[in-house]
Each structure stands twice: as C-alpha cells, then as structure tokens.
Amino acid sequence: MKPKVYVTRKIDDEIVARLEAAADVAMWPEADVPVPREVLEREIRDADGLYCLLTDTIDEALMAKAERLRIIANMAVGYNNIDVAAATSRGIQVTNTPGVLTETTADLTFALLMATARRIVEASDYLRRGDWVTWSPMLLTGQDVYGATLGIIGLGRIGEALARRAKAFDMKVLYCNRTRKPQAEERFGLTYADKDDLLRQSDFVCVLVPYTPDTRGLIGERELALMKPTSVLINTSRGGIVDESALYRALKSGAIWAAGLDVFEREPIGADHPLLTLPNVVALPHIGSASVRTRMRMGHMAADNLLQALAGGTPPNLVNVPG
Ligand code: GLV
C-alpha cells in the first residue's frame, strides 16, 4: 500500500504528480483559502506525510491525532508555525526550504527599503488621486539610500545577500548576530556592532532573524527609541519580532521616520489595520519570496524532502533530529 500524503493547499500540478508517483495524495483544493482546522485534523489521522505552508499551525494537539505521521515538509524557510520539539519527541521529521529563496527575498527587502526611503507608494497614490499640481522643491522628499548606513539584525543567508546589494549602493553596513562572522566582515566589508549601537547609528534597520521565543518582540519601544528620527525600519522576517503597537506609536510621534513591512503579527491583516492609516508605512502582503521561479523551487524542494523521508532516507533540509 502506498503511503498517504496530505497537502494543505492546492499546489502546482507538476509537484502533485511527483508526489502521486510515490503516495496517495489528498489535497485541500483551494489555492487562496487555508485548510480549515477540522479538515486538517481529519486528514492527518491516517497521513504518513504532511506537505504544509507557513499559514498552517502544526502543533502538538494536531500531531497527537496523527498516528502514522513521519514527515512534515514546510514550504517555507521559516518554520515557527510548527512545534518542532513536539515533532522531534514523536519521531517526526521536519523540513524547510532554505537557500532557494535567499536572493529573491533579499531583492524584495531592498525594494521595500528603497520604496520606503523614497516614498514611492505614497508618491504614486498622490499622482493617481490627481493631487499633482506642480514640481515643487520639497515635494515628497525622502531619504537617500546611497551612502547611508544600513544595520542588519541577523546575518544569515538573506542578511548576507542584502549586504551585497547595499555595498553596491555605497552603503556602510553594520550587522549584529548571535555569532560574529569574520569571513563575511572581510568579504563584504561589514562592521559588527552590538544591537543598541546598530540601532543608534543606522539610517536603515533591517530585521532578518528567525522567529523564536527569543526573538519575539526583539524590536520594541526601547529599541525604537534608540533609532534616529530620520531612520527607517524594514521587516521581511516575521511580524512578531517587531512590537506593532510600539512601532505604530514610534511612527506616529516621529520617533522614527518610516517603516517597510512585509510581515505582520497576525496575518492576513485587514485594510483597517492601524499601521495602514500611516502614510509613512509601506506594507506588503508577505511576498518576500514571491517570484514565479522561487516559489516553484520552494514547492519542489518541499516535495524532495517529503519524498526522501517517505523513502526512508534523511531529507536534505531536515531541521530536527527525531529520536
Ligand atoms: C517565508 O516567509 C518563508 O519563511 O519562506
């Protein structure tokens, strides 16, 4: 008998065909609606493998219902939606999709930085509203990107890719990270700083750490108060890393100049989210890795991991070591 795989969202036919060659596949049929919890709870009971997205909460209670589950393959590099400790203790492998999305996400991070610095969205809205009367000396003036200081909090793969882009814009790049990275410092001309110094000195602060209990609220009231009134915060990692209420207050009071956000504490946010009332916020719907090529690669990579695990091997992107 073939193993059963449950896929929590409608994914590309090419990927489904690969899974079907090795497994009986059941799939939630919607592309733009997440699988309801009760459906997932029902389907997981006899599943050997789960192919899931960052929108699915894969917790202990769900795993407790899964008698045969051996592999949870997340189609994302971040896996804070999965209780990895619970999976490990139940002997379930957990995998993610690192590497393939690095450059695409760094592109989006830099695009958000530039859009925020130069008020691109606000300026475009201004024009479309018909407000453009004349060229004017200080109209819609922003902050320079070239020559400015960028502070990267979390120098992982995406942080390094962002640093390379920043260097091409003659930016001075500071970083902080759990461990110092002398090779990256030398290769890309980066300067290590502790978090508070980085916040004080940077014109742009980009948050690129994984979301864990340790990084929850990493940027809060105290950290925002250290930033310059002309500086910009960019977050393309996970929403909960930045305290949104503190950020709202800092943006409203002018404690910082602007923010570019691709991620939010609770996604999706509605059009009535307080941050969207502020003109100095550029907000995107979690599209960091959203290029056609990269999303297809992530989809195939999650399938590679899942298939390898079902075949009894060690998946290439294992994030835990189940006992
Ligand atoms: C996207 O946010 C990812 O973690 O891949």
Q: Which helices and strands occur, and which strands form pairs?
A:
Layout (H helix, E strand, L loop, with lengths): L3 E4 L5 H8 L3 E4 L9 H8 L4 E4 L7 H6 L5 E4 L9 H6 L3 E3 L6 H16 L2 H9 L20 E5 L3 H12 L3 E5 L5 H7 L1 E3 L2 H7 L2 E4 L13 H6 L5 E4 L8 H10 L4 E4 L19 E3 L8 H19 L13
How would you describe this protein?
- The longest helix is centred in the last third of the chain and has 19 residues, at 292-310.
- The protein has 323 residues and is an alpha/beta fold.
- Helix 5 (102-117) crosses helix 7 (157-168).
- The strands form two sheets. A seven-stranded parallel β-sheet has the order 8-7-6-9-10-11-12, with helices on both faces. The chain has a five-stranded parallel β-sheet with strand order 2-1-3-4-5, sandwiched between helices.
- The protein starts with a strand and ends in a 13-residue tail after the last helix.
- Helices cover 35% and strands 15% of the residues.
- The protein contains twelve helices and twelve strands.
- The protein binds glyoxylic acid (GLV).
- Glyoxylic acid binds at residues 54, 76-78, 101, 288-289.
